[in-house]
Design a protein that fits this description.
Elements lengths: L3 E2 L2 H10 L2 H6 L5 E2 L4 E4 L11 E4 L4 E4 L5 E2 L1 H8 L4 H12 L6 E2 L9 H20 L1 H9 L4 H6 L3 E3 L5 H6 L3 H9 L3 E3 L5 E3 L4 E7 L5 E8 L7 E3 L15 H7 L6 E4 L2 H9 L5 E3 L7 H8 L4 E7 L2 H14 L8 E7 L5 H18 L2 E2 H10 L7 H15 L6 H14 L3 H5 L11 H19 L19 H14 L4 H7 L6 H8 L10 H31 L3 H14 L1
Parallel strand pairs: 14-15, 14-16, 16-17
Antiparallel strand pairs: 1-7, 2-3, 3-4, 4-5, 5-6, 8-11, 9-10, 11-12, 12-13, 17-18
Helix pairs in contact: 1-4, 1-21, 3-4, 11-14, 16-17, 19-20, 19-23, 23-24
Amino acid sequence: MTQLQIPREFIQLLLTRIELVDLIDGRVPLRKKSSNNYFACCPFHTEKSASFSVSQNKQFYYCFGCGAHGNAIDFLMQYDRLSFPEAIETLAKQAGMEIPRESKATAKPIVSNDIYELLTTITKFYQTELRKSEHAIDYLKQRGISGTIARDFCIGYAPPGWDHVLQTFGKTPALKQQLLDAGMLIKKDEGGYYDRFRERIMFPIHDRRGRVIGFGGRVLDKNEPKYLNSPETPVFQKGHELYGLYQALQANRQLQHALIVEGYMDVIALFQHEITYAVATLGTATTAHHLQHLFRYTTEIIFCFDGDPAGRTAAWRALQVTLPLVRDDTQIRFMFLPEGEDPDSLVRKEGKKGFEQRMQTALTLSNFFFQSISTQSDLSSIDGRARFANMATLHLKQLPPGILQEMMFEELAKKARIDVAQLKQPKKTPSKKTNSPKARSPSTLRLAITLLVQEPQLASDINETIPAVEVPGAALFMELFENIKQYSLPNTGALLEYWRDRKERKLLEKLARTEHMIPKDGIKNEFLGAIEQLKKLAYNQQIKRLLAKAEQGGLSFEEKQILHELIHNKK
């Protein structure tokens, strides 16, 4: 069985059915400022002047303040915080279109709504069983969990016994298989199945849309393992999901910050004390996927770790995962707990006020970074400072270029007593002298690509074959030109969608918002003129190659004819 993929052709057709101005105007009121452009205050950052521009011709939006940009799909992913498939589903529903599917042999198993419905039904079963168990209720009361919190987190209880879920929900072979796929059963070596979870407090794990995707179970006594999670399934990947994120989003209209803790009970205890922004990883270290999910909803993340050496080691690993994802508008901090305490115990002792005061004094990313690196070197010696600078530089290069990286390098230079320029070691590339046609070709080609990205219909004005020219960017131009022709890409938004998963998309997005200052009625002639310049350059390169070959060993009759035609065409 294979996953059903959305055909590229459908996505392109869908974008032609969606009017970006109407889509955005339904969420962010726009006002018309020119013939084809609309403006508003940007929904992605706080501002007083309208710097958010929507181009009706290009079907492309761009904020001159924060740089947010994209097509209809990108807008829904950023504004409604949807995944790519969810954005496609939303647009298809709006356009009244049914999403076709195509099979990919190497893809993951199909995910149907049945598995979500099954897990929701099992959640209700566990909740019912909790109400029947005095032992489980007493345990929750001892942990200080209120009925309200138990309800909000849908906490339940898996009763003792090997086949309660199996007997209740696995009446047929197909249902047994579905339970197995959902991670609720374990297959016996000798045949048959048994329940994965038995005699445990059950914590349903929700995705950010509120659907149950798995469970965590905690024992009531001293049996092992203390915590047991659902296995990886078509709907549950531990490295992608965060326990409590759905509840945090429900409790906070705007998530000011997120606190990453270790376990279910930590999250629940913090919620119990009105700290409603805690989330927990699910038996795994923090991953880039976790952080990318959180950065959709907040710009500040606080990691919470034990203060012992193991906690410091875990924090350092989290920092290494975080470095490539940090932006200048984000804040990362590291909070270390007193010995013998966890968030559950500490918040019960100190209350919300005391706990949040500790959060405010948590180490910033820069402080924790330099604190950790400096303990590994002797900064009082030249050798030690050299080692310190080398180690730190390797990590700081993982940071995205920006203000934070610049300031971190400056701080490193102070601590290592070295010039910041030496740390960065910029590579000098010797300048190359070029003749006039070559010197002009990159700007000519860049203009041609820019105009083609902003006005894809220009491709229809070229009906002849464009000769291959050997300059950087020529391959990109030819692929753009051929894609527009082949797939009839009508506007910038559709063109960029075709390049969504390609590394070149960032460059194309930059060119899409470039101000070329060419009057509207002069764009076509400018584009055709750029094409003529590229053709002349191609002819020059071919002539040069043939003349060089003639000097070395002579030309064939056919090659002499080609050379004659090229020289004639050049004139």
